[in-house]
Amino acid sequence: MTAATHSSLFPRVPESADAVLDGLDPEQREVALALHGPVCVLAGAGTGKTRAITHRIAYGVRAGILQPGSVLAVTFTNRAAGEMRGRLRELGAGGVQARTFHSAALRQLQYFWPKVVGGDLPRLLERKIQLVAEAAARCRVRLDRNELRDVTGEIEWAKVTQTVPADYPAAVAKSVRDAPRDPAEIGQIYAMYEQLKRDRSVIDFEDVLLLTVGILQDRHDIADQIRRQYQHFVVDEYQDVSPLQQRLLDLWLGDRDSLCVVGDASQTIYSFTGATPDHLLNFRTRHPNATVVKLVRDYRSTPQVVHLANGLLSQARGRAAEHRLELISQRDPGPEPAYTEYADEPAEAEGTARRIRDLIAAGVPAGEIAVLYRINAQSEVYEQALADAGVPYQLRGAERFFDREEVRKAGVALRGAARAGGNDSLLDDAEDLPSQVRAVLSTNGWTTEPPAGSGAVRDRWESLAALVRLAEDFARAKPGATLSDLVAELDERAAAQHAPTVQGVTLASLHAAKGLEWDAVFLVGLTEGMMPITYAKTDEQIEEERRLLYVGVTRARLHLSLSWALSRSPGGRASRRPTRFLKGLRPGSGSLGAGGAGGGGSVERGSGGGRRKRRGPVQCRVCGATLTEAGEMKLMRCEDCPSDMDEALYERLREWRSDQAKRLGQPAYCVFTDKTLMAIAECVPSTDGELASISGVGARKLDRFGADVLALCAGEEPGEGPGEDDEEQ
Length: 729
Fold this sequence. Notes:
Elements: H1 17-20, H2 26-33, E1 39-43, H3 49-62, E2 71-75, H4 78-90, E3 97-100, H5 101-116, E4 123-124, H6 129-138, H7 145-160, H8 168-175, H9 183-200, E5 202-203, H10 205-218, H11 220-229, E6 232-235, H12 243-253, E7 259-263, H13 278-281, H14 283-286, E8 291-295, E9 297-298, H15 303-314, H16 319-322, E10 328-329, E11 338-344, H17 345-361, E12 369-373, H18 379-388, E13 393-395, H19 405-420, H20 433-441, H21 456-477, H22 483-496, E14 505-509, E15 518-523, H23 539-553, E16 556-567, E17 603-606, H24 630-635, H25 647-664, H26 674-683, H27 688-692, H28 699-713, H29 722-728
Parallel strand pairs: 1-7, 1-8, 2-3, 2-6, 4-5, 6-7, 9-10, 11-16, 11-17, 12-14, 12-15, 13-14, 15-16
Helix pairs in contact: 2-3, 4-22, 5-10, 6-9, 8-9, 10-11, 10-12, 15-23, 17-18, 19-22, 20-21, 25-26
């Protein structure tokens, strides 16, 4: 399920094959009816490509042209495959295989391995990084944590591009790829890694594809058996296919051409993993008789958002840019994209959090808002700012919904209650399905109000709250549904990985946001050196960074905010510049000329808060070093420097915070976050000025809580100090 879906959660199954075509636009309908021969669908962002290809499959199945078991639909993420299975089920086309390349290959490998090799398939290595670390150690190469991750990525790239260890240095030179270490050194580590895997009888995810390719190449009888089973193939996100995946697809197909591919070269953002749009761009060369359909009607974004997206691509260069699609918005006009310039990163985070809080107050659900950044390391300052603003959030990239422990336990509890029926005392006072679910989940940690703070406890509550909301939607869609009916629905969704939406503002990297959409999107940190990223050197690397920003822009349905900070820390030199990709698009940045696509609106000069003062560089109060990390600036010391925190004061502050949160009816972190309390307990301020200098204590919180906090720091009870007495008199 995408980050937000406005259609009915439980639509009726179409009554006939023709009914499957209802509601498709002319181009989508053309896709759905093109069931023979090679088909290439060039689909821009937000144009309904998943809708088009799922209706194509469903129409073929419902019309009797395709047998469900003969269709293999392949995509790149478990989430996308789960969404596809869910949609096909809703269209009455259950039984169609929708899988990732790795999942489809692994099933085939597990089935045929005993016949080809004998015995069980070697154990699958879930995480290769530890084995890479051991390989490096055996090669007497020292790698820090970041280098270890980068070298692991290089090994993955080498394998999906079918490069053996001995050829790795030459392949790097040919691809103009920046290796994180000496290529000969990485080639040596790569070779040792492969040796360790053989010694321990384990395989990694890339091996799953390589071994399947090897079997299909060597054993024609097995290749023929698979080809007899799968007669028709659909590949989504075809611009992201690697050479190894294309080789596997060719072996699945054999000499047939019953293939439909869907993609957009302008959304190629994974070349560092071996993905290449060449297979999409060359499709018509390989298949001269292919049916080609372009989807350019954008149903996701307003004309204002689409205008900016088209403007970004109008400046693009290279082969992918030559095949760009000019989107045409189908939505009513909305607000212009907002451009905001901030003095520093903390101010940008605070300003973003404040705008998000305003959107939520105006009725935009938190789950319909996202903050997107270039690298994951940027998330911390936004986590802190949202927590300070009392806004719930979730980090993108957590484990799959139905794999979470709390969700599995909730499923067991609901299944048990459904079996017990009227004999379960928990359900005595529950009059309808939603109240039954709330009663059962209350024993698993669900409460009517969310827990204070963020982190694991809040994440678990959000998962259970998502199940409660799903039960409410299910009851509205199917009046009279029982708990057993809901359990059956959950089982089907779990099998399809068709998860409900967890509420909370999404924090995600631009790469992780691919395929998702929200009502409001905040693109942050848009400065040179971050967008494009510093290590993007070649023209093609720069163009991929532009495409990455394009993907970010096209995630927004209605509200789009773009921002940047002139310095990293408060008081720092304002040496940063907004990304070159917005030149001629943001107001006041020059013109693109007659063929350009200049944006409307204006650039604001943002600040973190209504009375935020410009500060000098924040220095560690222990060693004097200049601090740059958000967490360190909040504590006013380096993470590694010793803490002199007053533990007793910290506990008193926590108790006071808990009382305040209950009195206000808010989560505890809306009063002060844990790190702010730690900073107070370390600094033990005695004046308003000293307290105000602590990050996280803005003017509003100083006015509201300052007297109490200073009283606690002085060893007094809140309300005992002279200021409080004077106020009461």
